Amino acid sequence: MAKVGEKSGGGKKGLKRKAAAEEPQETAVSGDGTAEGGVQPPKAAAFPPGFSISEIKNKQRRHLMFTRWKQQQRKEKLAAKKKLKKEREALGDKAPPKPIPKTIDNQRVYDETIVDPNDEEVAYDEATDEFASYFNRQTSPKILITTSDRPHGRTVRLCEQLSTVIPNSHVYYRRGLALKKIIPQCISRDFTDLIVINEDRKIPNGLILSHLPHGPTAHFKMSSVRLRKEIKRRGKDPTEHKPEVILNNFTTRLGHSIGRMFASLFPHDPQFIGRQVATFHNQRDYIFFRFHRYIFKSEKKVGIQELGPRFTLKLRSLQKGTFDSKYGEYEWVHKPREMDTSRRKFHL
């Protein structure tokens, strides 16, 4: 009678022999890719047509295959670039011009309200609008900066730093006083603009800009706020020189109105000796504010150093007259479901 474990193959030793027999034998491969003896090595399994990497169930294997695919794509792209570069060098001056890459900005949907610089109607409107007295040098800016009721430290510091950017600006803290009561007091004290910074959960999230005494009033959503201490490699605190102002890419009638509102905050005749510049850059209806100091290193090179603060604005509404949330007449209101139907359509 046979004992337990005494099977054909000798128990564990038999199992080892069987596993060794099933293991593939190593074959030396020559330099041309053929195995010694003329035997071809097994080829990598190719995916069937229409197969997607996302169909691989194993997460690690799927990630590995996707990484290899991305690397192959980069190699092919780099090889195509090198080939094109050699062809252009061979052609020399006869080489065709480089193609302009497609972006959301240059594929923008045509807007009928884009302003022509030579349009007489636009020139007449700007000569008679609410900002005409500023651009005709009849008034000089005087700005009041305030906050929402009972502000926290971050909002207060933003107001203080903003007052160092805008000359002739004054910071006042609200103590339960409504905006409708603040505006008549500003007008009586010859303020030309009112800036209100709102906050939510101790974070600045909104800005109201009202031009006095007859408006208009713009409401912006504020995001990506960075104070001076939070900016890496920032320069020293700004001086009291009047800064230069750059308004970039405000092309429509609405964009012109917003750009003129920002321009009317700063006095005429900037002091170039201070080498300070405030920039309002509009890109895809987001207005990026930056404050820099520049220096000319040579005739062709310029160095810039950010001073802060920085933030991003998104226009929510433009209202005629001064702030009136109940009976105010709105020139433009952002309606996401109706206006944001295309990524290539912009309003500023």
Automatic annotation (TrEMBL):
Which GO biological-process labels does this protein carry?
maturation of 5.8S rRNA; maturation of LSU-rRNA
SUPFAM superfamilies, alphabetically?
A: Class II aaRS ABD-related (SSF52954)
Indicate the principal place this protein occupies in or around the cell. nucleus
Q: Where is the composition biased (Basic and acidic residues)?
A: 86-96
From the UniProt entry, list the residue stretches annotated as the region Disordered: 1-57, 85-104
Q: Which GO terms describe its molecular function?
A: rRNA primary transcript binding
Compartments, record wording: Nucleus, Nucleolus
Q: Name one GO cellular component term.
A: preribosome, large subunit precursor
Which Gene3D superfamilies does its entry note?
Probable brix-domain ribosomal biogenesis protein
Which keywords label this protein? Answer: Ribosome biogenesis, rRNA processing
Task: Kindly give the InterPro entries that the UniProt entry links to this protein.
Answer: Brix, IMP4/RPF1
What is this protein's record name? Ribosome production factor 1
